[in-house]
Specification:
By secondary structure, the protein is of the alpha/beta class. The protein has one domain. The protein is built from eleven helices and twelve strands. The strands form three sheets. A seven-stranded mixed sheet has the order 3-11-10-4-7-5-6, with helices on both faces. β8 and β9 form a beta hairpin. α2 crosses α3. It is globular.
Length: about 300
């Protein structure tokens, strides 16, 4: 039974999506998503760091939870998102430098945070014809049956959809073929660094994306996906991190500052799309004491 319900759910949603326009499909799912949102407990309030500004706390409303369930449905339809009626629902900005990087046969690393429907980013990239996979935490053996079903429905059947930390050899081979890898940097594990984010604030981030890009001579791009409502999305790619920061001995602090500078405006304009992972990364900057030799001895 553990596999029967996921299989039936997977097949039913995909069959409905194939015979319905996106707007009709969403209308059919809306009552079910609203019901799930009603019975699911509210998440706890989250204190918003002052660096982001706006409201002092965020609370996950039933509408936000309903929209999450609706958005998550799209993960059942990876290859169908390339259909014109679906593809028109996601716009891209800053894509030129990223596409040029891939055209030259150079790999790309997309550094992201858990902001907006980031779980759909790889799917929309693939729908736009861009070969991309995601590096996630955990173990490959832990990937559940439903996720494996979703993995099987892809525009790039010969290409892996996800990699795990213990698959770095596979990641190396993947990047060597000039493809794109999506990596979240706001999971506070592994090698960490704090970089200036704004006056009085630092942003603590994992360095994996920067180190991988430097090691494989890949383009490193800050990236975000924004939920614009009613199954409309926008993917934004910022200017690539300067190659001078991605040498054999990478300037991790400078590269990190470049990434945070691209993300912060969207954190501020859409704080309700931030997760607690992002908030936990912001740390008040601790002033360093003035060196004794530079103090006045008067």
């Amino acid at each position: 039974m553990k596999k029967v319900f996921p299989f039936v759910r997977f097949k039913t949603l995909r069959a409905l999506s194939q015979v319905c326009r996106p707007s009709v499909f969403r209308w059919l799912l809306l009552p079910l998503a609203a019901m799930r949102a009603w019975f699911k407990a509210c998440p706890p309030d989250m204190a918003v760091p002052a660096v982001i500004g706006g409201v002092p706390v965020l609370r996950g409303t039933r509408q936000e939870r309903r929209d999450y369930f609706l958005n998550n449905t799209l993960s059942f339809l990876p290859e169908q998102l390339a259909r014109p009626d679906w593809r028109s629902r996601c716009t891209f900005t800053g894509l030129e430098a990223f596409e040029e990087c891939l055209r030259r046969g150079r790999p790309a690393v997309l550094a992201v945070c858990h902001f907006g429907p980031v779980y759909l980013l790889r799917l929309w990239l693939q729908a736009a014809g861009l070969p991309a996979a995601t590096l996630v935490t955990g173990q490959a053996s832990e990937r559940d049956y439903l996720k494996r079903l979703k993995d099987s429905a892809t525009l790039f059947p010969a290409m892996p959809t996800v990699f795990y930390p213990h698959q770095l050899r596979e990641v190396t081979r993947f990047l060597a073929t000039g493809k794109a890898l999506v990596i979240a940097v706001d999971k506070l594990s592994g090698h960490l660094v704090e970089v200036p984010a704004a006056p009085g604030w630092n942003f603590q981030m994992a360095t994996g994306a920067i180190r991988l890009a430097a090691r494989h001579r890949a383009g490193l791009f800050p990236c975000q996906i924004i939920d614009e409502g009613n199954w409309h999305f926008r993917v934004e790619l910022g200017r690539p991190v300067p190659e001078a920061y991605l040498t054999e001995d990478p300037n991790i602090s400078a590269a990190g500052q470049h990434l945070v500078a691209a993300w912060l405006p969207r954190f501020r304009s859409h704080p309700h799309q931030c997760t607690s992972m992002i908030f936990d990364c912001f740390k008040p900057a601790v002033s360093q004491p003035e060196p004794l030799a530079s103090r006045s001895l008067v």
